[in-house]
Predict the 3D structure of the following.
Amino acid sequence: MVSFSSIITSFLLVAGVVVAKPVPKTAEVPVVTYLGTQGPILSSGAWTSKGIVYTSGTVPTFNGSIVAGGIEAQTAQVIKNIGVILEEAGTSWDYVLKTTVFLANMSDYTAMNSVYGALLPSPKPARTAVEVGKLPGAFLIEIEAIAAIPES
Ligand SMILES: *[C@@H]1O[C@H](CO)[C@@H](O)[C@H](O)[C@H]1NC(C)=O
Ligand SMILES: *[C@@H]1O[C@H](CO)[C@@H](O)[C@H](O)[C@H]1NC(C)=O
């Protein structure tokens, strides 16, 4: 039987997407990168199980501070932070199956989409995008992701 990840890899190759070759983790383990998450007391950066990694809701911080700039800069930083977490888990944005985008204000939807659309590899993951009443901190955006971990 052809494995799911090899199907995805073939599809991405056909689509002309550069497929990263990360070193996968085998056991069920926490991903301890805390970039843009609540930190070790409340969460792990992500958790892996059965070849899938589930990230925490990740916010636009860099070196512990919210990034300067509006929704565009914040969206780019969240995508970057999730990329670092995925890398520790042995995968990358190329293998993300699903994202959930939480916006503090739906007025930022179009601007968020322009950055999201440009930075994420295609084909794009499945996605849910919603406005929430409020995010912790003064964050405009938080994103969580579910990704497959490719076989080595
Ligand atoms: C972020 O933190 C790292 C490690 O402490 C430091 O080397 C780097 O200069 C910092 N970057 C900025 C832009 O503050
Ligand atoms: C959302 O953004 C719009 C446009 O900037 C602004 O008019 C509105 O007050 C904001 N809503 C909230 C709840 O902050």
Observations:
- The first strand starts at residue 30 and ends at 31.
- The pocket of 2-acetamido-2-deoxy-beta-D-glucopyranose (ligand 1) is lined by residues 63 (CB under 6 Å).
